[in-house]
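Please, does this match?
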Amino acid sequence: MKKILITTALNREPLAELFGKFEVFMPQDKDMKRDQVLEMISDYEVLIPNFSFSTDKEIINRGVNLELISNYGVGYNNIDVEYATCKGIVVTNIPRTTCEPTAELAFALLLAAGRRIGYYDRKLREHRAIDWGVYGDTGLPVFGKTLGIIGMGRIGQALARRAVASGMNVIYHNRTRLSREIEERYGATYVSFDELLRTADYISLNAPSTPETIKLIGEKEFLKMKPTAVFINTARGNMVDEKALAQALKEEKIWAAGLDVYEHEPKISPELLVLENVVLTPHAGTKTIEDRHRMAEEMVHNIIGFYEGKYEVSRVN
């Protein structure tokens, strides 16, 4: 019987199909520490890391029996995929169940940052002065504005659908231009990266984290944006120079930001924590019970599909 090591304490219910087919070890209440995984991994054929657990060369080398790394997340920058491939280890992710909830949060951040919801809430709760007048402490509209999406994959398209329903215009930049059918579905216009930065009112980063996209957005990119631009990031924190973002917000080079991911999470740049024009959430794109369960089920299907062919497998290598 194949053995599975799960690094994160997950609800057992969506994992039910694994039990009986595999020998499964999972921590009861707390995530496993790195040294625990290093000590145990040599006995297991399957590793299930959380999206924040670094599965690097050391972990992979210790996993002498590893055949599959089934990531509990859509992003897989936590895994050294290239090295796993060299070792003949298959890596999978869960892109389907993470799509809609992540797009949902991205659009929530867009609305919250543009309409200053966090700012208003803080001011009112802390009994600080807020201008109730007609033109005091105003926000930015969403209807009729242009959303620029960087990375028009599953999540980008799910975000576009929400934007169109709210009366927004959509432009996008992708490594590869989408088909005319998909563009027409969202009324989306393909533009260059620079044009998107210069013309979009709201800019959402939805591309995958790869060596090529690390620090994709930095000081020069923020300077190209409109001073009324709102920047949203629900992709990965390492794709943005966080200090440059904080500086752009502080100096009002851009108007606001909505962030769910951070360059060195769970640590957040102190500058961001004190700024009034940024909305922060704790990597919560899929943070609902229902979505966490769906993610676990998709992950289980990857494993059973890999060994039995019963389900489609979402391989990344």
Q: What stands out?
A: Residues 99-280 form a domain with the Rossmann fold fold (CATH 3.40.50.720). The radius of gyration is 21 Å. The chain has a mean pLDDT of 95. The longest strand covers residues 146-150.
